[in-house]
Design brief:
This protein has about 500 residues and is α+β, with helices and mostly antiparallel strands. It is built from 21 helices and 13 strands. The radius of gyration is 22 Å and the shape is globular.
C-alpha cells in the first residue's frame, strides 16, 4: 500500500513518542469530545426513506422490493439494513478525532465463526462492505445500538438491554487497556478462537453452546454444500436454481432485466474470464497456483443478507481433479456509507491511494481481522463495477441470538466487545491512545448506554415511517415466499 509523506510523518511521530506522550494525546482528545458527549444522538431531522432510496441506487431493481421485505420483518431487521442512516446521523455529532480503519457496520449479527488457514475455528468480525477510515467510536455506537434494538425485539427488559451495552463497553475498555500493553507482534498474532472462548466462558451452558457451535461449523464445508446445492448433468456440476435467493443469470428464473450489466449473457465463461484473471493478480503467487488446480463448473447469482440485497453477488463453483468442490463468492463493492458521511483527514486519504472499492474491502478486512480467507481478493466486472472475492462458506457460523437466554446473550456481548477491541487495536496501532481516552471508570460506558437506548428509540420511529411508506405504496416490499411463488423451478 503506497504511503504518502504526511502519513509517514504521522507514523514516525507515533513510533517515536513515549508511552506517556501517547497516553496524554488520548486524554487530550477529551477536550473537544468529552466522554459524556457520546450520549448525544445528534440532529435527526432527516428523511429515512430518502436515505434508503439513496442506498438502493444502482442495485438490481427487481430485487430492491425483496430488500425492503426483509427489512420490514422487525425494527431489528430494519436496523441491519440501514447502516447508511446511522452513518448519516453519526456525522452530525462531534467525534474523538482518533481515526482508523473501522468496520462501518459492526452490528451484533456481523460477527461469526470461520476456519483459519490452519483449520482452527476463530470468531471475528465478518462483514466489511462498509469498511473505511473513520472515528473508532462509530463502530461501538453501531454495535451497542444493535444490542438494544435486538433486546427490544426479543422483549427483554430495559435493564437487560442497558446491561448488554454496559457489558460491551466495559469489555471493550478492559481489553483495549490490555492490548495497550501488547507488543506489536503479540497483537498481530492474537486470535480469538473457540477454544479460547470456551476457556474464558463464565457458565457451563456457554461452554456447551460453544462446543455445539464448533461441531456445527465443522460440518459446514464445501463438500457438504455440493450435494445440497448442485447436481451432476452430462459430466459437469450445475448449481440448482432456488429463486429468488439463487438463480442463473441467463436462465428462465433470472431476476435481471435484459439491460442489466451484460450479466445476462448466455455463456457466463467469457463474462467471468477476464474478471477471474484480474482477481488472480491480487493474490499471492502460491494461492494463484492453488486455484489453477480447480476447474470452473458453474456460476449463479446469490441474494445475500438484508442490507446487501440487490447488490450483485455471484457464486462460482469449481472442482479439482478428484471432483472436490470449491465455492467462491464474488460480491459487488460500492462506496462505503462511512466514506459518504465522514471525510477522513487528508493523510489517511492519500496514504492508501485506493480507488477500487473491492480493494478497500479486502485491505480493510485484512487490517481488522486476526486472520483472513486465503482466497480474499478483488476484481472489476462489467461496466466497471467493483467486486471482492472470498470463499462462500468454510466452516462459517453465525449466532442465532433469538435462541439465547439472558446469560448467553451477555456472554455474546462480552465476546463482541472483546473482538471489536482486538480489531481496532490491531488495525490502528492506537490502543494506548484509545485506552487513555476511555480511562478506567464507567463514564464512557454510561454515555454509550444513553446513546444506544436513545438511538434505539429513533430506530423504532424510523421503522414506523418505513412501514408506512411500504403500506401506502411509496416503497414496494415483498417477502422471499411471495417472490418465490412467481417461479416454477
Amino acid at each position: 500500500m503506497p504511503v504518502h509523506d504526511d502519513s509517514k510523518k504521522a507514523e514516525k511521530r507515533m513510533t517515536s513518542s513515549t508511552i506517556a506522550e501517547r497516553e496524554a494525546a488520548g486524554r487530550a482528545a477529551r477536550e473537544h469530545s468529552k466522554r459524556s458527549s457520546h450520549r448525544a444522538v445528534g440532529d435527526l431531522d432527516r428523511d429515512p426513506v430518502a436515505l434508503l432510496r439513496k442506498s438502493s441506487e444502482g442495485r438490481v431493481q427487481r430485487l430492491v422490493p425483496l430488500r425492503y421485505g426483509r427489512m420490514a420483518v422487525s425494527p431489528f431487521t430494519f436496523f441491519r439494513g440501514t447502516a447508511i442512516i446511522q452513518a448519516h446521523d453519526l456525522s452530525k455529532v462531534q467525534d474523538t478525532g482518533i481515526v482508523m480503519p473501522i468496520c462501518g457496520d459492526g452490528h451484533l449479527m456481523n460477527f461469526g465463526g470461520f476456519a483459519t488457514p490452519e483449520r482452527q475455528l476463530a470468531f471475528d468480525l465478518n462483514d466489511f462492505d462498509e469498511v473505511a477510515y473513520g472515528p473508532w467510536e462509530w463502530d461501538l455506537k453501531r454495535l451497542t445500538a444493535s444490542f438494544v434494538v435486538a433486546a427490544r425485539h426479543m422483549r427483554l427488559s430495559r435493564s437487560t438491554a442497558e446491561g448488554l451495552v454496559t457489558t460491551v463497553a466495559t469489555t471493550y475498555r478492559d481489553w483495549m487497556r490490555t492490548y495497550a500493553g501488547y507488543g506489536t507482534l503479540d497483537l498481530w498474532y492474537d486470535r480469538i478462537t473457540f477454544e479460547r472462548m470456551i476457556e474464558t466462558a463464565v457458565s457451563p451452558e456457554a461452554r456447551r453452546t460453544l462446543r455445539r457451535g464448533m461441531e456445527k461449523a465443522a460440518s459446514r464445508t464445501h463438500e457438504s454444500m455440493l450435494e445440497k446445492m448442485a447436481e451432476r448433468i452430462d459430466g459437469a456440476w450445475h448449481i440448482r436454481d432456488v429463486p429468488p435467493g439463487l438463480f442463473h443469470m441467463h436462465g428462465n428464473n433470472t431476476l435481471f432485466a435484459p439491460e442489466d450489466d451484460g450479466l445476462t449473457a448466455g455463456d457466463w465463461r467469457p463474462l467471468i474470464g477476464s474478471m477471474y484473471e484480474d482477481y488472480l493478480k491480487t493474490l499471492t503467487h502460491d494461492r494463484r497456483n492453488l486455484l489453477r488446480h480447480f476447474e470452473p463448473q458453474d456460476l449463479v447469482f446469490k441474494v445475500v443478507g438484508v442490507g446487501s440485497v440487490g447488490t450483485r453477488c455471484l457464486v462460482m463453483l469449481h472442482t479439482d481433479h478428484l471432483d472436490k468442490p470449491l465455492f467462491l463468492q464474488i460480491k459487488e463493492a460500492g462506496q462505503s456509507v462511512v466514506g459518504q458521511y465522514y471525510k477522513a483527514p487528508r493523510h489517511f486519504r492519500t496514504a492508501t491511494g485506493i480507488r477500487h472499492h473491492g480493494e478497500r474491502v479486502v485491505r480493510g478486512q485484512r487490517a481488522l481481522q486476526a486472520v483472513s480467507d486465503i482466497f480474499l481478493g478483488w476484481t472489476t466486472g462489467p461496466l466497471g463495477r467493483h467486486f471482492y472475492v472470498r470463499q462462500l462458506r468454510d466452516m462459517k457460523l453465525s449466532a442465532n441470538i433469538e435462541l439465547f437466554d439472558n446469560t448467553l446473550l451477555e456472554g455474546y456481548a462480552r465476546i463482541c466487545g472483546w473482538i471489536m477491541a482486538r480489531a481496532h487495536a490491531k488495525a490502528s496501532g492506537q490502543a494506548i491512545e484509545i485506552s487513555a481516552y476511555i480511562g478506567r471508570g464507567d463514564q464512557f460506558a454510561q454515555a454509550l448506554t444513553g446513546y444506544a437506548c436513545a438511538y434505539a428509540d429513533q430506530v423504532e420511529k424510523d421503522y414506523e415511517i418505513f412501514i408506512k411508506a411500504c403500506r401506502n405504496g411509496d416503497l414496494e416490499a415483498r417477502t422471499d415466499e411471495d417472490m418465490a411463488a412467481d417461479f416454477r423451478v
